[in-house]
Amino acid sequence: MRVDVLTLFPEMFDGVFGSSILGKAREKGLVSLTTVNFRDYSTNKHHTVDDTPYGGGGGMVLKPEPIFAAVEDMVGQAGDEGEAGASPRIILMCPQGRPFTQEIARELSQERHLVFICGHYEGYDERIREHLITDELSIGDYVLTGGELPAMVVIDAVARLLPGVLGNEQSAASDSFGDGLLEYPHYTRPPAFREWPVPDVLLSGNHAEIDKWRRRQSLLRTLTRRPELLEQAELTQKEREWLEQARAERSAAGETERDDGGFSRKDS
Ligand code: SAH
Prior knowledge:
Blueprint: E1 2-7, H1 14-18, H2 20-27, E2 32-37, E3 50-51, E4 61-62, H3 64-80, E5 89-99, H4 102-108, E6 113-117, E7 123-124, H5 126-131, E8 135-138, H6 148-159, E9 192-193, E10 196-197, H7 200-203, H8 207-225, H9 237-252
Parallel strand pairs: 1-2, 1-6, 4-7, 5-6, 5-8
Antiparallel strand pairs: 3-4, 9-10
Helix pairs in contact: 4-6, 8-9
The protein binds S-adenosyl-L-homocysteine.
């Protein structure tokens, strides 16, 4: 997979693209990650890339010319390589875009060539949105100073799904959202840490029982933290019945409130 990032701050990507799993994927040639400073495509004297908005108001707006020129240059190069049918996905990072999910990560991991455009300041000239891009992605309902961190988030999530990127030490199959559910809890040595033991079943060596325990933990965790995910998950009739029972037990015990994953839990 080829990934190109248009940014005014290429140095921000050095650490992320050079370290850990992404760094190794790049070394192994599984993914090429390139940054392009679209300031280099500005043709005016001071290499400006932004200007004040028509109609007034605060903030600066990214001009269309350098971004169009940079993308057209890149797409031209991809054509030169003779990649059959490889028209790139041109993705604008933007808080108004489609909310990024694991499903979109899977979809993008099937592509040959992705181009990310990182905004700054107030945002982009609307003609970029209307006439250049194929996708707009948001990483959540909050506003950051630039599209670099969002692009890194998306690239990381996509790259770890490419064949060969994750070693045996980690597998994408059972990860949260992989099967529409949150993942089960993990334990490692020691078997007893302070007064907290590892659940017996995990030490039993009985793999059928372990699988069953993990699946139920996964269902329970999804029920308590993200019940809305259960509507889309693929569950057997038996699992649905088991969940109904767990739901009933929880409400009988007065545990109707959603588990927020400890976010607002107060240390007492
Ligand atoms: N004025 C814009 C926000 C600009 S934030 C608006 O109200 O919609 C500056 C840049 O940061 C954006 O162009 C985008 O590239 C990036 N950005 C900020 N928050 C983001 C988010 N949640 N998801 C993706 N990109 C984001």
